[in-house]
Amino acid sequence: MASKRSLQCFMSRLCRGRRMFAAVPESSVASSSHKLINLEYEYSAHNYHPIPVVYSQAKGSSIWDPEGKRYLDFLSAYSAVNQGHCHPKIVKAIQEQVEKLTLSSRAFYNDKFPIFAERLTSMFGYDMVLPMNTGAEGVETALKLARKWGYKKKKIPKDEAIIISCCGCFHGRTLAVISMSCDNEATRDFGPLLPGHLKVDFGDAVALEKIFKEYGDRIAGFLFEPIQGEAGVIIPPDGYLKSVRELCWKYNILMIADEIQSGLARSGKLLACDWEEVRPDVVILGKALGGGVIPVSAVLADKDIMLCIQPGEHGSTFGGNPLASVVAVASLDAIREEKLAERSARLGEELRTQLIKVQNQYPDYIKEVRGRGLFNAVELNGKALFPVSAYDICLKLKERGILAKPTHDTIIRLTPPLSISLAELQEGSKALRDVLELDLPKMLKEKPHSVSSSSSHICDRCGRNLYGSVDKDL
Ligand SMILES: Cc1ncc(COP(=O)(O)O)c(C=O)c1O
């Protein structure tokens, strides 16, 4: 029976052409990791496509697998580990708290959430916070808050509120949130999506004003990432954030910045909006607010907006729990005390200098190196590399001890913990150079030129190819 099941499992993996979860040849990973990957494949939903490496222990920027091999983390759990893995101050905070009190629910008060609330609001200069857990919940909260404000304050007619979001955005995976997504994989067969959403091109203030003019009376909020992360670290043109601020004031629309990935020092400033010294009406934080230890998210706004939500209208059992509260305070302390924003800005410059050197050596393969602080991407030239993808390059980086994850077919995001050292950064760019110099020629020869569906990247919503995927009719 067991052998029949493993055979079925093996066959189903072989047969699934697209996005294989656990394409792990026995020889590519040592035995304990191999067993764990297969166990996960067997018993967990196949909703991710991980690089085949098993995290077993971590400290700062270093990861060890169960066999004791060390890697350098160049993803930071999608920027949730800005402070570095197992940061001693954050670990100590949770260890001390876990013995005392873990959960009150907000049916009652606890002695840690008020401290966190005061701390977070004063650090970011807002009147109030609404605490949640995951990033997607934070975004949901901001959407609900904007709608409430729209009806109560802006007097939008009942059920007619509109939220504007950007093409290429990523705000999470819940139904309301994917209703704004341009990624077909995130939306197909999950319909019907939530109504009340319109899209605009990211970085285009003229298009934004056009849509504000046309639908302004019904628009409650404009939700955007100041730097689009999942889309491939897309930085808006200079002046865009300022224009957004002006337009939102002009048309009485809430400016809602999703800083879940770009915030908390990742981009070299505390918030990415700080690059243009712009203060949004609503800020959403998550990821590194929990220091890579537990999920903590938060929505920040002033009283005239936040108090539109009344008791009983929104909440979460775990939001504002004492463990999350002490972890968040320690995470914020670490960012401030260790000057992580400044560090990110400085090291980011250095990393881009190194990566541009690699680009100059391989201009045919690297289209662009871009980023702010330690929020960076290397965009590959999909045509020159075809059939090798960014994922294949990441597999080779992994073999060379560097853990990075592609976003879309041709972009590698490089977002190490902000505590990374200069020498470790150099290891990362050297590994990329070595992959292009030593591994790629072999990969190009060996990988079969199978045709995969470029049409899946044509946005269902607008019919454009947003992610510049490779034209496979080569
Ligand atoms: C900008 C942005 N918003 C929201 C989310 C969703 O966060 P979570 O995965 O914690 O729900 C993400 C996650 O990558 C993100 O990058």
Automatic annotation (TrEMBL):
Q: Per the entry, which co-factors are needed?
A: pyridoxal 5'-phosphate
The chemistry this enzyme catalyses reads:
a 2-oxocarboxylate + L-ornithine = L-glutamate 5-semialdehyde + an L-alpha-amino acid
Q: Which Gene3D superfamilies match?
A: Aspartate Aminotransferase, domain 1, Type I PLP-dependent aspartate aminotransferase-like (Major domain)
InterPro entries found in the cross-reference section: Aminotrans_3, Aminotrans_3_PPA_site, Class-III_PLP-dep_AT, Orn_aminotrans, PyrdxlP-dep_Trfase, PyrdxlP-dep_Trfase_major, PyrdxlP-dep_Trfase_small
Which Gene Ontology MF annotations are present?
identical protein binding; ornithine aminotransferase activity; pyridoxal phosphate binding
As recorded in UniProt, its EC number(s) are 2.6.1.13
- Extract the PROSITE patterns matched here: AA_TRANSFER_CLASS_3
Which major enzyme category is it?
transferase
Per the record, the pathway is: Amino-acid biosynthesis; L-proline biosynthesis; L-glutamate 5-semialdehyde from L-ornithine: step 1/1
The terms describing its cellular component in GO are: cytoplasm
UniProt entry keywords in alphabetical sequence: Aminotransferase, Pyridoxal phosphate, Transferase
The Gene Ontology biological process terms listed for this entry are: L-arginine catabolic process to L-glutamate; L-arginine catabolic process to proline via ornithine; L-proline biosynthetic process
Family under the similarity heading:
Belongs to the class-III pyridoxal-phosphate-dependent aminotransferase family.
Q: Which NCBIfam families match?
A: Orn_aminotrans
What is this protein's name? Ornithine aminotransferase
